[in-house]
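Weekly sync, protein design subgroup
Attendees: M.S., D.O., the rotation student, P.L. (late)

Item 1: inverse folding check
M.S. brought a backbone from last month's batch and wanted to see whether the design step gives back something sensible before we order anything. D.O. pointed out we never logged the input encoding, so this time it goes straight into the notes. Structure tokens as presented (123 positions):
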């Protein structure tokens, strides 16, 4: 089984920063990609960022490029999302996912997801 647990969400003022963590266990023994998606109330789930577990491939949504940074700590089996210059429109539940294919890592078709962590940005 693959288990993903997000943490680090909370309330922050606009312009502030938060760092989310995704602890992974039971990973398949193969190459794969970790991703962050978010979903705001009344909105569709949208891609935020992704990173390969081996190598250094990364991808970002245009809306967060230059503000968010995805990183990993293989020794801790953890993926991070550092969020700077937060805006009220960043308010959402943030989900950590695992995708077996680079070609689909931005599409939200993964079978593996955490329960999410709430990020609220006040104006």
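Designed sequence read out in the meeting:
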């Amino acid at each position: 089984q693959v288990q993903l647990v997000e943490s680090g969400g909370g309330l922050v003022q606009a312009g502030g920063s938060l760092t989310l963590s995704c602890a992974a266990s039971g990973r398949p023994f193969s190459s794969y990609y970790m991703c962050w998606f978010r979903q705001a109330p009344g909105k569709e789930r949208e891609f935020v960022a992704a990173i390969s577990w081996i190598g250094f491939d990364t991808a970002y949504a245009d809306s967060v490029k230059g503000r968010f940074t995805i990183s990993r700590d293989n020794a801790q089996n953890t993926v991070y999302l550092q969020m700077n210059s937060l805006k009220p429109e960043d308010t959402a539940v943030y989900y950590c996912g695992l995708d077996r294919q680079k070609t689909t890592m931005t599409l939200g078709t993964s079978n593996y997801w955490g329960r999410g962590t709430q990020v609220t940005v006040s104006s």
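Discussion: The chain has a mean pLDDT of 93. The longest strand covers residues 18-25.
Action: P.L. to compare against the previous round before Friday.
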